[in-house]
Amino acid sequence: MKKRFAYWIALFLVDILVAIFAPRLTNQNIFLEILGVLFIVYAIVLNSIAGRTLKLYGHREKKDKFSPPDKFVNIGIFSCMRHPGQFGNMFFLVGIAFLSSKIIAILFSGWLVFLGAMFILFVEESEAIKKFGNDYCKYITTTPPFKFSFKCLREGIEAIKDK
């Protein structure tokens, strides 16, 4: 858990540093900045829905503080994609880069998203398979790891507001 958290923090820090210190090759671009804000808002919404869903459905007994789920969750936003929180993290990385309006930062964020996706698919997926077993293996065959869809957001919101 701590290693995963450290990995994502490292990606965020590298992304921010590149966005700050990369040379500006073009003028500031309001379109890129607006797109960056939209990506960041989408990231926050995805993370919020995913976190709330895991808090409501991911524990056998109610917990007040943050803790990893001990129960398999495949409802709400998790019925559309396996890793909505991490997908939100990726949008956050890209949003920061677009907000900087620096082409180098935007291109570099693509590599960070690639590294994030590989970490999820090779490290976190194997941990989930060990933890949740056959249920998770079946889930992998029917649900994509990531999916950009406003329908997924709606399903996620409905799952949390109903409970």
Automatic annotation (TrEMBL):
GO cellular component, one term: endomembrane system
InterPro entries: Phopholipid_MeTrfase (IPR007318)
Positions of transmembrane segments: 5-24, 30-51
Coiled coil: none
Membrane topology label: Multi-pass membrane protein
UniProt keywords, alphabetically: Membrane, Transmembrane, Transmembrane helix
UniProt cross-references to Pfam families, sorted A to Z: PEMT
Compartment annotation: Endomembrane system
Keyword Transmembrane among record annotations: yes
Name of the molecule in the record: Steroid 5-alpha reductase C-terminal domain-containing protein
Native species: Lebetimonas natsushimae
